[in-house]
Write a structure and sequence with these properties.
single chain, about 160 residues, alpha+beta, N-terminal domain of TfIIb, 4-stranded antiparallel sheet, disordered N terminus, nucleic acid binding, Znf_TFIIS
């Protein structure tokens, strides 16, 4: 099934695979499997996930851990594009550049007021806002700021 998807124009008919419906050229299953095998060198043989080239010795499946030795891939032309977002996601780091519009938007938001005293100057009220900084199944982070002295702190809830 996967091989047919990779080839694109294959049609199954009478136990043989045909390259184009209008063509008289037929290929048997063995030649089709060989064709697919030559083109699937970057996919895991166990689960079909794209292999990750993290080592010069082998490519590894990030899902199941299957490894394919580099000698099997050697000589193959591999071309792909990596964005800054891909790198950030892979390394699990914050964005390289925080957009100015995001900072301005955050500063202009009217904040709620809570009746809690400031730990710095004992002002009876603090402004606060919340953000979801951790994963969705965890609590949010509450940011407090004193309007009198400017003291800021946060709590994970």
């Amino acid at each position: 099934m996967l091989c047919a998807a990779l080839v694109g124009d294959l049609v199954l008919g009478q136990g043989r695979l045909q390259l184009h419906a209008s063509s008289n050229i037929f290929y048997n299953r063995k030649s089709i499997m060989e064709f697919c095998h030559r083109r699937d060198f970057l996919f895991c043989s166990m689960c079909g996930t794209l292999l990750s080239l993290k080592s010069p010795k082998f490519a590894e499946c990030p899902l199941c851990g299957f490894k394919r030795f580099a000698c099997e891939i050697e000589g193959k032309e591999i071309q792909y594009t990596i964005t800054a977002e891909d790198i950030r996601r892979e390394l699990k780091i914050e964005p390289f550049v925080i957009l100015e519009s995001a900072q301005v938007e955050e500063e202009n938001v009217k904040r709620a007021v809570v009746n809690e005293s400031c730990p710095q100057c004992n002002n009876p009220q603090l402004e606060y806002y919340t953000k979801q900084l951790r994963s969705a199944d965890e609590g949010q982070t509450v940011f407090y700021e004193c309007s009198k002295c400017g003291y800021k702190y946060s709590l994970n809830t």
